[in-house]
Each structure stands twice: as structure tokens, then as C-alpha cells.
Specification:
Length: about 300
């Protein structure tokens, strides 16, 4: 199931699943999106500090549920932080099935995006959050348009960096993934499930400011030692550092060799300056040797 694209003049809903909204920081993003021709609608509880670090899980989920039920809202855009997973039991998944919207974010949004897809079949989008419009770059803008705006089309992944092939080969599968530690944890979450009869093209990202190479390797090991690995057809690993340690490349090489899957590294998505969008739930063809990814 895919949501309809954004129309010019359409409304984007914003809520905060992982933090208390700092409206001064949001001002720039609001101005950029309004200049692009979109309206914004904010959740009622985004500045609540019920838990100290965020509104209560119920309040955050209530904002999401209200935006989904609002017929004027075409897209829900949000940013990360910590604690998004707390809201999963309070999301009205039937509401989303009845009123499919475009959902886009990354990082701590990993559990929300994957749970919504798993529970509803709706394609969600990993790679671009509301905070990335503070300093909107051309690459990010074109990614936004190609996946979300009427009149554009995303058939082929467009790269803005040099990919590094760690294990060659080609494959096909349903795109799935997110932030490394959170995706690994989601494999044991009751709001996540996968089809044991399908192949999945896994995308994972991590960053040196959050995880040393040994930690990133640990998260990959948990994924590799789960039953899910039997359904993984390939791996795309996102931006880690401007100067990627050879240890990470060797880790990815071992992962690809251990499970006989193609693996590449790219700076096109993750916690860097580029925010390519990867649709969770969309089928894709991956050619690691020629460093190409095609959607559909």
C-alpha cells in the first residue's frame, strides 16, 4: 500500500516522538517548507515535557493518530532523538490503514517506520526528517520531490557519493532497515514482523559519534545471528564517517562473505550531509558490482 503524493499547497503534519520541540529550531524548517509551497500542522503535545525528556508516550501517539485522522494532512514528517519506541503500543494502526499518509524520518524513527509498515503494509520512508530542512541541500530537495511530490518519479536510486563494493553480486528484495542498533532490537519487538517467504534488501546506517566500529559490528552480529538473516538478500550500509576506518570496511566484508550476500558502503543516507530516501516495503533490485539500486 502506498500513500498518495503531496500536492502543491498540501499540508505536512509534524509531531515529536523522541523529544520536546524547540520551536526556535523548527522556525527555519517551517520557513523553508512554506517557501516550497506547503502548509504545516503541528501535534498538540509537541512541547509537553510530561516525562521530562518528552511528552508521555500516550500524548505523542495521540498527536500521530490525530494527524493521521486529519483529512487535510497528506504527509507526516518528524525527527529523531530517543524513546520513539515507547509509542508503538498506542499507535492506531487501523487508523493508518484507513487513512494512509506519507511517513518520513530516520534514526530513532526506525521502530515507528518499521512497525507501521509491518502492521499495515503501508510503505514508509527512511532518510529525511523535519530538521533536515533547516539547511536544505539540493540533493535532499530532489530526493524529497522524487519520492513525495506529484509530478516526480523515483525509479532509480540517484547517488551523490562514491559507493564502495565490499562483496560483489546482485539480488532483489523488499527494502527494510534503519539505524543499526534499533533495527536489531526491532527483530524481537512484537510490533515488527516479516514474511519468511520473502527476500529483504537490508539497509543499515550508524555513525562514529554514536557507535565505534566494534559497536556497529556487534549490532550487525545480532542481525546476522537472528532468524531474519535467512531472508536477507543484500546489505547497503550508510554514512558512518567522513574518514571511514578500514576496520568498518573489513567488518562489512566479513558480513557479506559470512552470509554470501552483496554488500556496499555509501555516504548517501544516514547521519551525514546527504539524506537519500529508502522506501521501507518497496521491492528493489540491487547490483553491488555496478553500484546500482532500482526501485519497483
Amino acid at each position: 500500500m502506498q500513500a498518495k503524493r503531496l500536492s502543491q499547497g498540501g499540508t505536512i503534519g509534524v509531531f515529536c516522538p523522541s523529544h520536546i520541540a524547540d520551536m526556535e529550531r523548527y522556525t527555519r524548517s517551517i520557513a523553508v517548507l512554506e517557501r516550497l509551497g506547503f502548509n504545516l500542522k503541528f501535534g498538540a503535545n509537541i512541547q509537553n515535557d510530561t516525562y521530562g525528556y518528552a511528552a508521555s508516550a500516550e500524548e505523542r501517539a495521540a498527536d500521530l493518530n490525530a494527524l493521521v485522522a486529519d483529512d487535510s494532512v497528506q504527509m507526516i514528517l518528524f525527527s529523531g532523538g530517543n524513546s520513539a519506541v515507547e509509542i508503538l503500543p498506542f499507535i492506531d494502526y487501523e487508523n493508518i490503514r484507513r487513512n494512509p499518509k506519507l511517513f518520513s524520518s530516520y534514526s530513532d524513527a526506525t521502530p515507528i517506520l518499521n512497525a507501521i509498515h509491518a502492521q499495515t503494509g503501508l510503505i514508509t520512508y527512511y532518510g529525511l526528517g523535519i530538521s533536515d530542512f533547516i539547511d536544505l541541500r539540493q540533493y535532499d530537495y530532489m530526493q524529497f520531490c522524487s519520492h513525495f511530490v506529484e509530478g516526480y518519479s523515483a525509479k532509480q536510486f540517484v547517488s551523490d557519493s562514491k559507493w564502495k563494493t565490499l562483496n560483489g553480486g546482485s539480488c532483489e528484495g523488499t527494502l527494510i532497515g534503519g539505524y543499526s542498533s534499533l533495527f536489531g532490537l526491532m527483530l524481537a519487538n512484537r510490533y515488527f514482523n516479516y514474511d519468511i517467504n520473502k527476500k529483504y534488501l537490508l539497509f543499515i546506517e550508524d555513525h562514529e559519534k554514536y557507535s565505534r566500529v566494534g559497536a556497529a559490528s556487534t549490532y550487525l552480529a545480532y542481525i546476522g545471528q537472528s532468524a531474519f538473516i535467512q531472508n536477507v538478500s543484500g546489505l547497503i550500509f550508510g554514512h558512518y564517517s567522513n574518514n571511514v576506518p578500514d576496520d568498518l570496511f573489513r567488518c562489512l566484508e566479513r558480513f557479506g562473505a559470512s552470509y554470501s550476500i552483496p554488500v556496499v558502503y555509501t555516504d548517501d543516507f544516514g547521519h551525514g550531509t546527504r539524506h537519500a530516501i529508502l522506501p521501507i516495503g518497496l521491492n528493489a533490485k540491487f547490483d553491488a558490482d555496478n553500484q546500482q539500486l532500482a526501485f519497483g
